[in-house]
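PROTEIN SPECIFICATION:
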Amino acid sequence: MLRRRTWMLGGAGLLLVLGGGAWKVFGRGTEEPVFTLEQVRRQDLRESIQANGEIQARTRVNVGSTITAEIRGIHVTDGQWVKAGDLLVTLDQERFLQDRVRAELTLNGARQDLKGALAAHDKQTRTFQRREELHAQGIVSSEDFQQEKLNLENATTALERAKVSVHQAEAALAQAQDLLSKTVIRAPMAGQVTGLKAEKGEMAIAGQTNLAGAVLMVISDLSEMMAELKVGELDVVKAKAGQPAEVSVDALPNRIFQGKVFTVASGTERPAGASFNNTQEAQTYKVRIRLEGRPEDLAVLRPGMSARIAILTAERKSVLAVPLAAIQERDTKAGGLGLMNGTRSVVFVVQDGKAQERPITMGLGTRRAAEVLEGLKEGEPVVTGPTKALPTLADGLAVKTEAPVR
């Protein structure tokens, strides 16, 4: 009996606990939300683009080879300063030397053939002229005359072919000489070797820079330093040449470098050969910042250093602004054919205890506030929260609010 009573009391307690929990859950779910308000006021707004990037020289050249051959000598070291025309790399020349010798022999043979064809043509020309005179006097038959004429035409054709053969042999020799000269790689410009990637004995690969061995080293002109970043398609339309920027470098904490936007890419950073598909991919565009300052201050920077970059894209003084939390995007029909859905920006103000929808026209926007061009007046209270309850607002809905923050 005692055990049964204990079990019954325990069950009743459990029901009370569950009932209390359910009341809390469902009771709170039906509570009327209390909305927070904030007054529209004037403030200074600054719009910026911020992204990670890296430090690079304004001008840098990937030094590679236009022929495939073994590296026989590397004549510079990483970090070495070079002048335009300085010797950088020598490649194996044996195969190219042999090709040049063969081309020279072929040219000599073609020139001898041309000499013989020219002598034969001269001889046949004199023979034809004599036969032509005799034919005019009736001494040589027409058949003999026509045969000599044909012989001259054949000699002329052979002479032209010999000339073509000489031209071809000269071109082949020039090509062989050009390939031989490319076994010696010299600096295309003055600068510093900032990335030595090759070793003696490796193969230098001609052509594609994404293959190992294609880039032997990088030469950078460090007289002008850049900060490079990639920005998304929503931000690139805000970036323009000449905008001020700040750059911080991970390797140099507590130092801020000033600069200005130098170039904004007009094309996306989509890899070559990539194609569109059903998946919408975010596109990025390269923006380059030219760093300003004394040469001795910029001399500490090195290509490839990680950087944090901020670009000031717009600035407004004492403009009417609304908190970003108050702005909602509501669906609407776009113009034109009306086939595409659009959005309109609205906020809600509270008058006489009821929500009032206000369409607004926005200007400059930041991460916290947006400039209001039309739709609101200074001092009006707008609803800013709670975030989960904002979508439930509708024009004319009775709402409970807190006092606006001044």
